[in-house]
Amino acid sequence: MRQVCLLGASGSIGKQTIDVIKKNPSSFSLVAFSVGKRTRQINYLIKYFPSITHICVQEKKAYNKYKKQHPNITFYYGDDGLIELIKNSHNDMVVNALVGFVGLKPTIVSLKLNKIVCLANKEALVVGGELVNKLLDEGHGKLYPIDSEHVALAKCLAVDDQDVDKLIITASGGAFRRLSRDELTHVKASDALKHPTWKMGAKITIDCATMVNKSFEVIEAHYLFRYPENKIDILLHDESMIHSLVLYNNGVYRLDHGKPDMRIPIKYALFEGLTDFKTVVVKDYHVYKDYHFRPFDIKRYPIVKWAKFIIENKGTYGAVFNASNEVAVHAFLKDEIPFLMIEEIINHFMKNHQNIKNPSLEQLIQVDKEIRKETRDYIERSKR
Ligand SMILES: NC(=O)c1ccc[n+]([C@@H]2O[C@H](COP(=O)([O-])OP(=O)(O)OC[C@H]3O[C@@H](n4cnc5c(N)ncnc54)[C@H](OP(=O)(O)O)[C@@H]3O)[C@@H](O)[C@H]2O)c1
After folding, report:
1. Where does ligand 1 bind, in terms of residues with CB under 6 Å?
2. CA–CA separation, 85 vs 104, rounded Å?
């Protein structure tokens, strides 16, 4: 029985993780969770899971309110509260379903404490992949990704990781996949939030439309499976039914096929890969005649060039890519900037950054802080 601490319980992955835990009560016990500003389900979760002893909220006001209502539960708040939650709740597994940079430190702390980490928060690997892998190499923590593409690759590689030519990550292309670059000039946040195949949180949905998400996933695959950038490809696949593929040297593919439902990769991660699964071997993925495949086009999605650059240069470039994107996406969601300015902002900060090699967590936090401020200034200047 795993004692689970769930970070980001109010989000899309968080709620689906709760579904998986509810369906498997003899394998998982929810002992702690965090929410951000959406506090509505706290009372419900406490009632449903009497095993809960520790909770973290984002804001002090909510902390004061719920602490009074539930004197038998230990409450925390803020970024430091997330760390206290991990340290003090008696858990052996941390599911990190936070969105954004805020997920980095909890991942590092969990691994330092030798926890099993199920990681949906891909930003942690994009920014701190080097630190994460160092902790995995030196310590006894474990890391299982919660991303449909990476779980697909993990399944394929668990069956056969010999003579691998390429890891191929599939991409639906996001909400604007039918539009040319010229047509992207006037798209709005409300249009971008209509993802064709997945229902997800707002930030990742925009990241899918810009393809920043696919850039993140290439970097994530590099750190998770330790393949060089030239061994990781992207394939456009409209239906999101094939979650990723491994191409072997003899030209054969192994792939993971199934409906787009995040509960499947969440379950795989929570069971540490020890669940029933099937992979399929094909000579040519076009045997799936009803599905559409197109080669990845870097001219249509130029932002993905930064994935290769970040893998090659490492250091603080991942932090710059992530921080400028996070701030730009939030501005786009508030209709403050046009869609294509997200790309413009990322390009500007990536081109002007002085890389710091082998950064510490503190240096990553500092770079994140600086780039956030500079990005906000850039956006304000653009409004004048
Ligand atoms: N959704 C998917 O299908 C999917 C698939 C693959 C990977 N992922 C990755 O999984 C992660 C979560 O995605 P999501 O779609 O579940 O996002 P989401 O729906 O926006 O949920 C994010 C969670 O993080 C919490 N949070 C955000 N900022 C916080 C802060 N400063 N302090 C404390 N808590 C904070 C939110 O709290 P409140 O909402 O209560 O404020 C919420 O619980 C992302 O890294 C995403 O890229 C998602």
Report:
1. 8, 10-14, 34-38, 58, 97-100, 102, 120-123, 147, 198, 200-201, 203-204, 262
2. 15
State mean pLDDT over 318-345: 97
200, pLDDT greater than 90: no
Give first-to-last CA distance, the chain, whole Å.
57
SS3 label, residue 35:
coil
pTM to 2 decimal places: 0.97
* Mean pLDDT estimate for the chain: 96
Place 194 in a pLDDT band, splitting at 50, 70 and 90: confident
Q: Is the pLDDT of residue 196 over 80?
A: no
Residue to mutate, 13, 95, 217, 263, ligand 1, most ligand atoms under 8 Å from C-beta: 13
Domains of the chain are: 2-145 (3.40.50.720), 149-295 (no CATH), 315-383 (1.10.1740.10)
Write out the E strands in the chain.
2-7, 28-34, 54-57, 74-77, 93-96, 116-119, 142-145, 164-171, 232-237, 242-248, 253-257, 280-282, 293-295
Report CA-CA distances (Å) from 331 to 44, 176, 201.
33, 19, 16
Q: How confident is the model at residue 63 (pLDDT cuts 50, 70, 90)?
A: very high
**Maximum distance among all alpha carbons in the chain?**
64
